[in-house]
Amino acid sequence: MKAPEMRERPDKKQPDSKRVLEEYFQQRSSHGECTRAALALLLGPETEYHMRVRAARKLARLGPEILPTLLKTLSSYPEITSPPWPWWPPQYEHCSRLLIYLSQRAEVGLEDLLRLPTLPQPTGPVLWASVMEAASLLPHTDYEALLCQGLMAPWLTVRYAAAMALATKAGKTPLKRCTIEHLFSRQCQDEALQVRLTIAYALLNSKESCAMDALIQFMDLSMPAEIRKAATFILATEIPISLSNEQRERLTQHLLHALQDVHTELALNAAHALSRIAHPSALPTIIKLLDTHDPQTQIVVLTTLEEMARHTTMRSTMRRLSLPARVLLFLRAEVPEVRRQASYMLAACGGEYVAAVLGTIIQNREHPGHLEAIDSLRLLHGVLRAPIRMNVVRWLLRVLTQPEEEIQVTALDSLAYLLWQARTHGQKQAASEISHELLREGTVVHLLSSNSAWVRQRAIELLGMLGDSIATIPHLYGRLLNLLYRDNDSGVRACIAYTCGQLGGRWAIPGLLQTLLDPDEHVARTALTALGRIATEDDAIVLYVIKELTLMNAPDTDTPHPLAEAGKMVLKKWRQAEKKEGKRKLHRPL
User: Fold this and answer.
1) Omega prior to 86 cis, within 30 of 0
2) Which residues span the domain enclosing 98?
3) CA-wise closest residue to 566 among 535, 530, 534, 520
4) Stretch (H or E) spanning 308
5) Does the residue 577 lie in any domain?
6) Would residue 295 count as lying in a domain?
7) d(Cα 590, Cα 585) in Å, to the nearest integer?
């Protein structure tokens, strides 16, 4: 069954919702034990996700006639408080979608699900929270009055769900002024910190500047850790309003303190938020935090500087303050994560000095930051500009001659990232020059004979990115097929099969057919998928083989063979492609 469709009702005259629901309640229907079991699975705290989905779909198939039983069950069920905030009970996701589907089938509004006289009153918290959650999934329908009622409910879960629904709606469509005033009132009166925080989030999405003051208060050290984490996360991801100078100063000070917080998640969110709002004048204070001996704080501060370096003004100020020379010392730190983050920060800052330093370090195998420098070169600011791009490519190719496996893999990954970046940004000249240098130099092809399966696989992936240009390499296709047949690592064989499919070369069809007999199931399936990309129904031998595969099932079992299922998918794809081609020919002008 398809997932329940969520749509807003068209603007037309609707039947009396209350009368329709009363008729459903008056209908006599026996839902039986299966329905009760489905409800138990839907609301059970330990139900696995896929089982909860199946239960919701079973109830949806029963249609609006199930509404009486469903509403009574939800209303009488005790408030669900596990898992505790900031997590959210998983039951509501499926209950809310089920209510939307059934209410649309019955042509009644969500608010009428709570008002029916025949429903025992007062309505319970689970039904209320499910309705609030359902309203959040329809942000363009006017349920603001209903959500404001939810903010007055005696249950924490209902008030939180209503506040989050209003925050979601405010991010997509403006709230009414009376709703905003109600949010202001509830923010002062509600005792639950998580509800007040969510209300502040809704006001922030409504571009109310006072919401920023509330979020700053929630960052105070006297607040519980989860509240501070949530407030910092909001500041890190969404600041849709302009800040006053006073707010910016206060927020900067709080974020500077948060960089040293013992909770790494909170500190990293603070780093991201600070990189968005801090002025260059804050740089000296941030740099001073590098004097700490705590590796975690050093990593967080270096992360802040890396993100700040993405802005032109900040990069200029960092270079003027000789920050790269200061950060260079951290490439000798004992903690690898500190060295790695320092190299990323230097790469983000960029400039001739940084390029020369990183280029020197990657040639020195004894330097503690040798590996980290190789990894960060791909992120060097302006790395795709001439002439630095070819210098970097040649440095990395020279590194490939070093025997250490991890160094070779890191260099191959950096080269692949540079090529991908050039193509993604549409820099055809850069992509062409990098590809030509990789083919001319020959080290990557030589690594196909490496003793390390990890290196061989990375080399194959990089060669696959070069496309049809690899045809200029003598005997390369033969070497790839030889590895496809004989390599002792299944990951390498699967990688070659996948690469053959991406390249689309018909030269690979015989090798892929033979690989269907590979003892590793994953390799055989990858080869079959590649054949589906390269071959067509006109390839009689391939078509015959795949049809034979669809009949291959294990004896004494009803479970189909994985290759049989994959073969059916290939045949289905070919039939669909043939139908589309037939339609194009039919509509083609004479």
Assistant:
1) yes
2) 1-6+14-138
3) 530
4) helix 295-308
5) no
6) no
7) 10
Q: Are 361 and 375 in contact (CB under 8 A)?
A: no
Q: Sign (positive/negative) of CA torsion 500, 505, 509, 514?
A: negative
Tell me how far the alpha carbon of residue 513 is from its chain's centroid. 36
Total tally of structural domains belonging to the chain: 1
Q: Which two tokens stand for residue 10?
A: 């068209």
In a domain, 31, yes or no: yes
CA distance 292 to 148: 48
Output the six-digit token pair for 149.
């009622």
Beta bridge partners of 553: 560
φ/ψ (deg, to 5) at 553: -130, 150
Which of 462, 306, 433, 439 minimizes the C-alpha distance to 381?
A: 306
Interhelix angle 144-151/177-189, nearest 10 degrees: 10
Least Cα distance to 327 among 311, 313, 344, 312 occurs for 344
Would 105 be classed as within a structural domain? yes
pLDDT tens digits in sequence order for the chain, 590 residues long: 333 344 343 444 444 544 544 444 444 344 567 888 899 999 999 999 999 999 999 999 999 988 888 999 999 999 999 999 999 999 999 999 999 999 999 888 999 999 877 788 889 999 999 999 999 999 889 999 999 999 999 999 999 999 999 999 998 999 999 999 999 999 888 899 999 999 999 999 998 888 888 999 999 989 999 999 999 999 998 876 678 888 889 899 999 999 999 999 999 999 999 998 889 999 999 999 999 999 999 999 999 999 999 999 999 999 999 999 999 999 999 999 999 999 999 999 999 999 999 999 999 999 999 999 999 999 999 999 989 999 999 999 999 999 999 999 999 999 999 999 999 999 999 999 999 999 998 899 999 999 999 999 999 999 999 988 888 888 899 999 999 999 999 999 999 999 999 988 889 999 999 999 999 999 999 999 999 999 888 889 988 998 888 887 655 556 677 788 888 888 888 888 777 766 666 666 55
What's the CA angle centered on 343, arms 424 and 351, to 5 degrees? 70
